[in-house]
Amino acid sequence: MTTINTFGALIGIPVGVIFLLAGAVLLPLWQITEDNKRND
């Protein structure tokens, strides 16, 4: 079981970090596009 837990952590942690970074980048971009739609 320990091997499965460490394997899950090795995959889970980088994936979590990637999702956090993607969210931090995509949220402002999405808000900018929404603002542009309202301006049009």
List the main descriptive attributes of the protein structure presented here.
40 residues; 1 helix; transmembrane helix
Short overview:
This protein is mostly helical and 40 residues long.
Account of the protein in words:
The protein has one helix spanning 2-39. The chain is 95% helix and 0% strand. The chain is mainly α.
**Total DSSP helices:** 1
Number of strands: 0
As a percent range, the share of helical residues equals over 70%
What is the ordering of alpha helices and beta strands? Answer: H
Strand proportion: under 5%
Between the first and last Cα atoms, what is the distance in angstroms?
56 Å
Content-based structural category: mainly alpha
Radius of gyration: 17 Å
Could you describe the largest sheet, including whether it forms a barrel?
A: none
Which stretches are poorly predicted, pLDDT < 50 over at least 5 residues?
none
Per the principal axes of the C-alpha atoms, what is the gross shape? rod-shaped
The overall average pLDDT, rounded, is 90
Question: What's the structural blueprint in terms of helices and strands?
Answer:
Blueprint: H1 2-39
